[in-house]
């Protein structure tokens, strides 16, 4: 087979929350994706069988206490350890938060909401597999310190799984179907030839980068692609919009401001006043596929964009309006989600949302010979602002978003090569350098939120319950049935505008 098929289904059954059965929610899809990202790098290349994992939450009080995502990853690791089919054995998982400068290990859901950063970290005994962070402009040094702490704490989880295996060890073995038939041998030969071409291409490309030769598009290892930003982009009828290009990747972002009551309820979580929709249509990569259902990529990248921008979004007290940011990828040659972070920041300023500062995003990659000694990479090179080819052939996908003051979100995924803490620290350093360059381009397009008038319109609609339509030459008020007092208040409010 050309690719190893690994599927994860995470299900929070409704009877566990006293609800009826349902279609998969965004939360369930994203938790399935978290498990996939944590486990997939453990399988050896060319694993000869497909694997499917089903994780079922029977009962939980996750809104207040239990972290079902963390428990699901641990349960998956323990189940696969019983089969002895993964390369690196059991994995450790930890979540770290911070409230009033106090570090909290495995915070409850309520504590996570009050934390100024939330780090989910997955590792083996020596190396990192996956990390997710949302933060309020955390510094590089603080992030490095907390990642090291996470590594030390997560290992304890590995020891517990090893004890579980020793206690309940059985004679179960995975039996893989094998055959010597000519048809299967021909299929294997064709697959090997196809994989061999891919391996040869990847090795040649990586060898060029590591030998100080320019990358496939002529850039140096830490040179970003040309950045072009436009605020407004001739879409004057919209509240806010932006068009941003990073090399061959181009994204159109729009920001819409709604009334304070127009918030979105997501699954069983509290209503959200700020939401992001990320659209990755097939034409942006010249592919043909089904477009009638949202995919993991769109949901996951949308959540990363939302986390990256959340640190600069004003509080509900200062800005009580609903904010809907839409990102549509027009063309993709890698790093479309981090480009969307930049475009989203510009669109919010163009809409007049009083965000604290711009947020930039960049993708960091890694090329290596995949040769390790004591768990450490011996020959590797980190590359900044990865293209589509480099992302496919590289060994790391590291998305970093932040302002000039600090980091707001990271999404780190190892591929077949697990990552040391030194490599992660080096990648963060280059990511921060790229942020400053990208922010310069963004601030040239727009450097402060625009002054707008339609917020007053939204406030009038929310206070009076009526619909107000404004144009250049007229104002139309659609009065609804309500007490006379409310109508009088509407008239007074309009008279003061």
UniProtKB/TrEMBL annotation:
Tagged with keyword RNA-binding: yes
Exoribonuclease phosphorolytic domain boundaries: 8-85, 89-150, 223-354
Entry-linked InterPro entries:
ExoRNase_PH_dom1 (IPR001247), ExoRNase_PH_dom2 (IPR015847), ExoRNase_PH_dom2_sf (IPR036345), PNPase (IPR012162), PNPase/RNase_PH_dom_sf (IPR027408), Ribosomal_Su5_D2-typ_SF (IPR020568)
Classification via Gene3D superfamilies: GHMP Kinase, N-terminal domain
Gene Ontology BP terms: mRNA catabolic process
The source's superkingdom equals Eukaryota
Residues annotated as signal peptide: none
What keywords would UniProt list here?
RNA-binding
One example GO MF annotation: RNA binding
Q: Does the keyword ATP-binding apply?
A: no
**Xref: PANTHER family:** POLYRIBONUCLEOTIDE NUCLEOTIDYLTRANSFERASE (PTHR11252:SF14)
Instruction: Give the protein's recorded name.
Output: Uncharacterized protein
Organism name: Brassica campestris
């Amino acid at each position: 087979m050309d690719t190893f098929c690994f599927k994860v289904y995470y299900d929070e059954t409704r009877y566990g929350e006293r609800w009826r059965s349902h279609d998969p929610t965004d939360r369930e899809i994203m938790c399935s994706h978290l498990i996939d990202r944590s486990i997939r790098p453990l399988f050896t290349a060319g694993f000869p069988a497909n694997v499917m994992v089903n994780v079922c939450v029977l009962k939980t009080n996750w809104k207040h206490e239990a972290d079902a995502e963390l428990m699901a990853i641990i349960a998956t690791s323990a189940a696969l350890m019983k089969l002895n089919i993964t390369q690196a054995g059991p994995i450790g998982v930890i979540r770290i938060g911070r409230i009033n400068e106090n570090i909290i290990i495995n915070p409850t859901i309520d504590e996570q909401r009050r934390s100024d950063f939330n780090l989910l970290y997955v590792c083996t005994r020596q190396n990192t597999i996956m990390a997710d962070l949302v933060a309020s402009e955390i510094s590089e040094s603080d992030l490095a310190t907390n990642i090291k702490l996470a590594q030390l704490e997560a290992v304890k989880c590995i020891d517990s799984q090893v004890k579980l295996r020793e206690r309940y060890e059985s004679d179960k073995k995975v039996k893989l179907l094998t055959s010597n038939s000519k048809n299967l041998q021909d299929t294997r030969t064709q697959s090997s030839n196809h994989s061999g071409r891919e391996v040869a291409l990847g090795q040649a490309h990586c060898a060029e980068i590591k030998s100080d030769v320019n990358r496939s598009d002529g850039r140096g290892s830490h040179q970003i692609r040309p950045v072009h930003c436009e605020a407004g982009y001739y879409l004057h009828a919209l509240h806010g919009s932006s068009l941003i290009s990073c090399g061959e990747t181009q994204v159109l972002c729009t920001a819409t401001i709604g009334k304070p009551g127009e918030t979105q309820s997501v699954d069983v979580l509290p209503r959200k006043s700020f939401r992001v929709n990320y659209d990755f249509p097939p034409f942006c990569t010249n592919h043909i596929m089904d477009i009638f259902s949202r995919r993991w990529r769109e949901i996951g990248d949308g959540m990363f964009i939302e986390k990256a921008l959340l640190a600069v979004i004003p509080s509900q007290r200062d800005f009580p309006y609903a904010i809907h940011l839409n990102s549509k990828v027009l063309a993709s040659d890698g790093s479309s989600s981090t480009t969307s972070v930049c475009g989203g920041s510009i669109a919010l300023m163009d809409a007049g949302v009083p965000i604290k500062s711009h947020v930039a995003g960049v993708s960091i990659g890694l090329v290596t010979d995949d040769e390790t000694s004591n768990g450490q990479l011996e020959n590797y090179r980190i590359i900044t602002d990865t293209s589509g080819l480099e992302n496919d052939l590289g060994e790391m996908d590291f998305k970093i978003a932040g302002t000039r003051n600090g980091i707001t979100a990271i999404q780190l995924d190892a591929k077949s090569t697990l990552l040391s803490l030194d490599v992660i620290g080096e990648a963060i350093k280059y990511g921060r350098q790229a942020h400053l360059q990208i922010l310069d381009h963004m601030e040239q397009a727009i450097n402060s939120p625009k002054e707008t008038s339609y917020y007053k319109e939204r406030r009038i609609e929310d206070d009076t319950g009526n619909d107000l339509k404004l144009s250049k030459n007229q104002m139309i008020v659609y009065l609804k049935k309500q007490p006379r007092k409310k109508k009088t208040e509407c008239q007074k409010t309009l008279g003061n505008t």
